[in-house]
UniProtKB/TrEMBL annotation:
Residues spanning the signal sequence: none
GO molecular function: serine-type endopeptidase activity
Record organism: Kutzneria kofuensis
Region (Disordered): 1-78, 116-154
GO biological process assignments: proteolysis
Protein name: S1-C subfamily serine protease
Record-stated family: Belongs to the peptidase S1C family.
């Protein structure tokens, strides 16, 4: 039987991949079964017609006038280092010496490394790197000839060290810092040794303190610093007795607003002495300009130049919980400061007058800032430092002192009284000519009329005894004090509606106020 010969169009059989051929050479893989190529894909991605290799054909230089333009020959050193060997011929790619031309290699690839490749340090990634001396000897300075290796260099002088740029600035700065630290450490150690035998400091531990802080704008300290000079202490001397109170400078002409009960003793006795003491200790005599017993307000005057005047605020803008500051002279302690909050507003207050004066009536600001005897007539300031009230009274059991319930006259009301006293020496208030008492029933609370003055405003409006007033000028009335405050705050000659309950029937009457 005849032996079949392989077709010349088929490549020779290739040994199985990974099988040694006995000569230490790597064997190529088996040919793959390549399926037929889609003609459309071949047209799209195949080589152009006439190109049978991945490398472009070598271009030939056309002749010019029978001669070829050649580039100048390269330097001999470069030709020896990078040129092709003489045996390479016209091979396009650089081949190792003794290798076959491209395209004539055997089916089995040649060996890439020798048998001793595993011992070659250049191919062993774990081999240590050994650095040798430089290829050429470095030039030696004339000063260094004959000196053994590792000998120290020349010494530097101070000018060379500082100005010769022989040392880096960072090194100089580091050296200076180390010297400074050593000096400071030595000084501290010497001081500690010297103080160790001092009996005044060796047996005590001093508390740590923080550096002084600036006063924050709007703080209590800042407000007091600006307003304290406008609050004065008032001294009244009557015979062998006397009293103390406070006042507030409200006008640059020397006018001071205070309480009537502070100066009432001086007003009734011509021999009494009235004196004002400023925050800096300056004392000067004062005289009474006018008094208003019904509102417990008075104005006195001193002859001074360029006094510190308080800035007037608006008590109507106060709300419960707002911060307030009281300045005065409680129990004779001048320029004392206390702080707190607004406990209530529009608190009707009626108290007995001084020395036969009529009852005091006003709508008070209640505060928990500590107020004691001597604070009367002093300032109640808001958080901006503006005057919002004149401290006037306290509520305490058996008159023992402050328990956090103090009252001040609102500045909106006190300002109108002070202007009238400065202008006329006295003020008049609205009145309707009746007396009332507080009543409380299941159906209604209010002020019951006890008597009506003949020819008065209430009588002209038709108010009779027994009527219960529940609202005056739109303000609810629950007690007789609220009625008295509502009346005194109205202007003279003003007509206001008054709601009453008469025999179970509600009525609204128009009342025109008169002067008291």
């Amino acid at each position: 039987m005849n032996e079949q010969q392989p077709s010349p169009e088929q490549p020779p059989a290739t040994p199985v991949s990974g099988v040694d051929d006995g000569q230490g050479r790597r064997i190529g893989p088996r040919p793959l079964d390549r399926p037929a190529v889609d003609p459309s894909l071949a047209a799209e991605f195949g080589r152009p017609q006439g190109v049978d290799s991945a490398f472009a054909p070598r271009a030939t230089t056309p002749a010019t006038n029978g001669s070829i333009a050649l580039a100048p020959p390269p330097p001999e050193a470069l030709s020896m280092a990078f040129g092709r060997p003489d045996s390479a011929g016209d091979v396009v790619l650089q081949r190792a010496p003794g290798s076959l031309p491209y395209g004539s290699e055997p089916a089995v690839e040649p060996v890439f490394w020798q048998d001793s490749a595993d011992r070659d340090p250049w191919r062993d990634p774990g081999a240590g790197a050994i650095l040798g001396p430089p290829a050429g000897e470095s030039e030696k300075d004339g000063d260094d000839e004959g000196k053994p290796a590792g000998s120290p260099g020349p010494l530097l002088s101070v000018p060379e060290l500082l100005f010769g740029r022989r040392v880096k600035p960072v090194a100089l700065a580091t050296l200076a810092g180390v010297a400074l630290l050593i000096g400071v450490g030595g000084g501290v150690a010497g001081w500690a040794i010297a103080q160790s035998g001092n009996p005044l400091t060796s047996s005590v531990t001093l508390s740590q303190v923080e550096p002084g802080k600036e006063q924050v704008p709007g703080s209590v300290a800042d407000i007091v610093k600006r307003a304290q000079a406008a609050v004065v202490q008032i001294e009244v001397q009557v015979g062998n007795g006397g009293g103390l109170g406070s006042g507030v400078m409200i006008d640059s002409g020397g006018y001071i607003l205070t309480n009537n009960h502070v100066v009432s003793a001086a007003a009734s006795d011509p021999s009494a002495t009235l004196r004002v003491v400023f925050a800096d200790g300056t004392k000067t005599d004062a005289k009474i300009v006018g008094r208003d017993p019904k509102t417990d307000l008075a104005v006195i005057k001193v002859s001074v130049t360029n006094p510190t005047v308080i800035q007037l605020g608006k008590s109507s803008s106060l709300s419960v919980g707002d911060q307030v500051i009281a300045i005065g002279s409680p129990l004779g302690l001048s320029s004392s400061v206390t702080s707190g909050i607004v406990s209530a507003v529009n608190r009707p207050l009626q108290a007995a007058g001084e020395g036969g004066d009529p009852p005091v009536t006003y709508d008070a600001i209640q505060t928990d800032a500590a107020i004691n005897h001597g604070n009367s007539g002093g300032a109640l300031l808001d958080s901006t430092g503006a005057l919002v009230g004149i401290n006037s009274a306290i509520l305490s059991p058996s008159d023992t002192g402050s328990i956090g319930i103090g009252f001040a006259i609102p500045i909106d009301f006190a300002r109108r009284i002070a202007e009238g006293l400065i202008r006329d020496g006295q003020v008049k208030h609205a009145d309707i000519g009746l007396n009332a008492r507080s009543v409380s029933a299941v159906s209604t609370d209010g002020a019951q009329v006890q008597n009506v003055k003949q020819g008065g405003a209430a009588a002209k409006a038709g108010i009779a005894e027994g009527d219960v007033i529940t609202k005056f000028a739109g303000r609810p009335i629950r007690t007789a004090d609220e009625l008295n405050v509502a009346i005194i705050e109205r202007a003279i000659g003003e007509t206001v509606p008054v709601e009453i309950v008469r025999q179970g029937r509600q009525m609204v009457l128009q009342v025109t106020t008169q002067s008291d």
